[in-house]
Design a protein that fits this description.
Layout (H helix, E strand, L loop, with lengths): L1 H23 L17 H10 L1 E3 L6 E13 L9 H14 L4 E11 L7 E12 L3
Parallel strand pairs: 1-3
Antiparallel strand pairs: 2-4, 3-4
Length: about 130
């Protein structure tokens, strides 16, 4: 009898607060769905899209080649899931902030994100680089 009562209180005071925390806390994986990045101005986002180009493969004139990645969280079922286009825009913005000229070889992956308070996390990985001026 004592053990049943102890288990009941353990569930009430340990498990329920953890479950309610999942509903009220922000995710730990990055921006939600296709939401606008409010930390970056629209002017900077526009400039990034005009400056950084997306290539199918790394051009011969490329140097300073490095991997770059971004990710987004699909937190609420009612929200739009992160799209490839949104993640590509995020890659362009990340390359722009590092002073790079292009991205290529973009790959997308989707992983479970319950420990990050997301249904899943969608990630984009690409090569980024600068291009020698001719």
């Amino acid at each position: 009898m004592y053990i049943k009562m102890l288990l009941r209180y353990l569930i009430i005071f340990a498990v329920l607060p953890m479950l309610s925390g999942c509903l009220s806390h922000p995710n730990l994986a990055g921006p939600r769905g296709n939401a606008h990045l409010t930390a970056v101005s629209l002017k900077e986002q526009r400039e990034a899209r005009l400056t950084v180009k997306v290539y199918q493969q790394i051009p011969d004139a490329a140097f300073d080649v490095r991997d770059i990645q971004v990710q987004r969280c699909h937190q609420y079922l009612g929200d739009d899931a992160p799209s490839d286009e949104t993640l590509t825009d995020d890659l362009i913005l990340a390359a722009y902030t590092h002073g790079l000229d292009g991205v290529s070889e973009i790959h997308f992956e989707k992983k479970g994100g319950l420990l990050q308070n997301c249904w899943y996390v969608k990630r984009a990985i690409a090569k980024s680089f600068r291009i020698k001026a001719e």
